[in-house]
Structure formats: structure tokens, C-alpha cells
Write a structure and sequence with these properties.
17 helices, acetylation, four-stranded mixed sheet, Flavocytochrome B2, Chain A, domain 1, mainly alpha, 2 domains, single chain, 4 strands, 398 residues
Length: 398
């Protein structure tokens, strides 16, 4: 006879929101709530497939909406959650925490159900195949430019621009695979994610997952969203955090001039001077050998392709020029729809309010859609964030 789960056995307990909220720290138990059921994630965080931090960011809080947004096969995940179940909210407890907007959340869940019923979350595989092919063709065109026209100044610059476009566009494509947004099963999404980010870009998939899932879980939340970790050491971000710095009289940088040095520290330097080295440290330090193998194929391919034409010195100049151009492209696209928005500590707001306050959209056009990899629709992407995002964007912005 199979053992009873905590929900069925005599050990079922009832909890209040206050009791759950007290289990949020690193030095004590960590609980969270999903669909009124209370789970003890204290030990599970280290085994969580999405990483320990992303699930820990919801310790002491309701995680129903992020649970729905982050998992494809929810039925399978729920089976593994049974061992973590310790009880549920008391019948007199509301389904929503006092800090959350019940009406807005109810309307959002209704909208999400309608969108799914209309089939707008289903990805078009032909589109993604063509998207990948256009990246591969640009990659070949970059090499052919040097092979056909020689290595003089103009072909060299044209090759660098083409390769930068490849890197930027591959970055947008890996983003879709990384979100498990293209295929209905995780296996194919993970495989293509490794290929695009590993072989076409030379970065580890695990590193992207580690950072990006945290960003989506708590966008623009200080200490929880790694994308704003540049505060306060380089920039003073957001009105609330800036006022805190002023009251504490902390001066890490001349913030009154940050609008000037942002152009020197941010867009040009992020990829070539930071990410380029940190990704190897991340993969080796965390023993992500599969990721390291995929990354190695990128650098070997690039070396064997361009060193015979340019020599080692010319190859290094081309490589870092590409990283420089790609970095500017990447930073401007990703920051223009986040940094201008609200930045604060985690106030445990409802899912929709959190996403809406942290993101904004950029005007739709054929060029903007391509240039940003459809990340100009950040509101829809952050709120719903599942497969078929491109088609949902197109429908909502007709």
C-alpha cells in the first residue's frame, strides 16, 4: 500500500499568511504557497532544476502565478511537489496576501485562460526554423565576405558587422529556447538552447538560466534581480534606491555624472570586458562540463574559420570588435524596456503589478521587431512568458 501524502494523512496542518511570511530567511525554514497549499522548500532549493535562488526569491510568499508561468508540464511537477507539502492555508485565510491586488489577479488569470484557449500560446515551428536559417546564412556571409573580397579595411568592417548581427540575433533566438517557448517538451527546447547559445554564441546555457529566471521572477527588485546588480557600485538606479543612497551618504561613483559615463561603462564594456571572462569562470566553478563542451565548439570553429584568413592578431581584433558591437546592441535593447521603469526592493506585490511596473513596450515595426528579437513587447513577455509569445504579441498589437 502506497504511503499517504501529507495532504491525505493525519499530519495535515493549517497555516496563516503571517506564519508563511515568517519562513522567508536564509537562516530558517523557507515556505511558499501555491494554490493555497503550503510547501517547505528549505532542503529542496538546492535540488530545484531552475536554480536555488529563483525559488528562494518567493520564500514566505504566494508563488501561484510564477509557478504557472515558469513550468510547461505542471502535472508532472506537482507529483514531485507532494513530498514538500506540509499543509494548506486555513479556511478563513484569503487566497491572496494583503499586499496583492485580488481583482487585477483574477482578471489576469481569466485573460491568460482565454489566450490559451484561443491557441495564441502555440509556437510556429516554421518561423523559428527560418529565424535560425537566417542567422546561419549571415554567419556564412560574414566568412564569404573575407574569402571573396579579401581582408582589407572595408571587407573586414563588413564582416564584423555581419558577425555582430549573428551574435545579437542568436542571442534573441536562444532567449526563446531558454524560456522553453518553442517546443511543447523541455528536451527539444534544452537541446536547441545549448546549440544556439553554446555553439553559435559561446556561452553556457546554465549561466543564462541562472540569471534570467531570477530576472523574470522578480524584475527590477534589488538583491533579487541580478540585472540591476550594478546598483550602487556603478549607477544609482531608480528613485527609491537613489534616495536611500543619499540618506546613507554613500558615494561609490559620481552619480551626478552617470548619464555621461554610462556610455563608457555600460554598452561598450559589458560583453567584452565582463561576460566574456565570467562565463568561463561560471561554467568551470559550477562544473557545467556539458556547457563548457558546447562553448568550446564555438571558439574552435571561429578560430579555424578566421585565423587562416586573418592570422591570430587579426582574428583577435575581429573577435573583440564583434563583442564590442554586440554589447552595444544587447545593452540598448535590454535596458530601454526595464531601466526607465520602477526599481525597488521586493514589496511582495501581485505578479501582474510586479511585471507591469518593471517593464515597458517599444513601438512595433518590422525593423523594431527584428532588431529587438520581439523583446520590444516586454509587458506581454514578462506577464505571460510562455510559448507562442511572438504570435500573442502580433495579435494584441494589431
Amino acid at each position: 500500500m502506497a504511503p499517504e501524502t501529507p495532504a491525505q494523512g493525519p499530519t495535515l496542518r493549517y497555516f496563516t499568511w503571517d506564519e508563511v511570511a515568517q519562513r522567508s530567511g536564509r537562516e530558517k525554514e523557507r515556505w511558499l504557497v501555491i494554490e493555497r497549499k503550503v510547501y517547505n522548500i528549505s532542503e529542496f532549493t538546492r535540488r530545484h532544476p531552475g536554480g536555488s535562488r529563483v525559488i528562494s526569491h518567493y520564500a514566505g510568499q504566494d508563488a501561484t502565478d510564477p509557478f504557472v508561468a515558469f513550468h510547461i508540464n505542471k502535472g508532472l511537477v506537482r507529483k514531485y511537489m507532494n513530498s514538500l507539502l506540509i499543509g494548506e492555508l486555513s479556511p478563513e485565510q484569503p487566497s491572496f496576501e494583503p499586499t496583492k491586488n485580488k481583482e487585477l489577479t483574477d482578471e489576469f488569470r481569466e485573460l491568460r485562460a482565454t489566450v490559451e484557449q484561443m491557441g495564441l500560446m502555440k509556437a510556429n515551428h516554421v518561423f523559428f526554423l527560418l529565424y535560425l536559417l537566417h542567422i546561419l546564412l549571415l554567419d556564412v556571409a560574414a566568412w564569404l565576405t573575407l574569402w571573396v573580397f579579401g581582408t582589407s579595411y572595408v571587407p573586414f568592417i563588413l564582416c564584423a558587422v555581419l558577425l555582430s548581427t549573428v551574435q545579437a540575433q542568436a542571442g534573441w533566438l536562444q532567449h526563446d529556447f531558454g524560456h522553453l517557448s518553442v517546443f511543447s517538451t523541455s528536451t527539444w527546447n534544452h537541446l536547441l538552447h545549448h546549440f544556439v547559445i553554446g555553439h553559435l554564441k559561446g556561452a553556457p546555457a546554465s549561466w543564462w538560466n541562472h540569471l534570467h529566471f531570477q530576472h523574470h521572477a522578480k524584475p527590477n527588485c534589488f538583491r533579487k534581480d541580478p540585472d540591476i546588480n550594478m546598483h550602487p557600485f556603478f549607477f544609482a538606479l531608480g528613485k527609491i534606491l537613489s534616495v536611500e543612497l543619499g540618506k546613507q551618504k554613500k558615494k561609490y561613483m559620481p552619480y551626478n555624472h552617470q548619464h555621461k559615463y554610462f556610455f563608457l561603462i555600460g554598452p561598450p564594456a559589458l560583453l567584452p570586458l565582463y561576460f566574456q571572462w565570467y562565463i568561463f569562470y561560471f561554467a568551470i566553478q559550477r562544473k557545467k562540463w556539458v556547457d563548457l563542451a558546447w562553448m568550446t565548439t564555438f571558439y574552435v570553429r571561429l578560430f579555424l574559420t578566421y585565423v587562416p584568413l586573418l592570422g591570430v592578431k587579426g582574428f583577435l581584433v575581429l573577435f573583440f570588435m564583434v563583442r564590442f558591437l554586440e554589447s552595444n546592441w544587447f545593452v540598448w535593447v535590454t535596458q530601454m524596456n526595464h531601466i526607465p521603469m520602477h526599481i525597488d526592493h521586493d514589496r511582495n506585490m501581485d505578479w501582474v503589478s510586479t511585471q507591469l511596473q518593471a517593464t515597458c513596450n517599444v513601438h512595433k515595426s518590422a525593423f523594431n521587431d527584428w532588431f529587438s528579437g520581439h523583446l520590444n513587447f516586454q509587458i506581454e513577455h514578462h506577464s505571460l512568458k510562455e510559448s507562442g509569445q511572438l504570435w500573442l504579441d502580433a495579435y494584441l498589437h494589431q
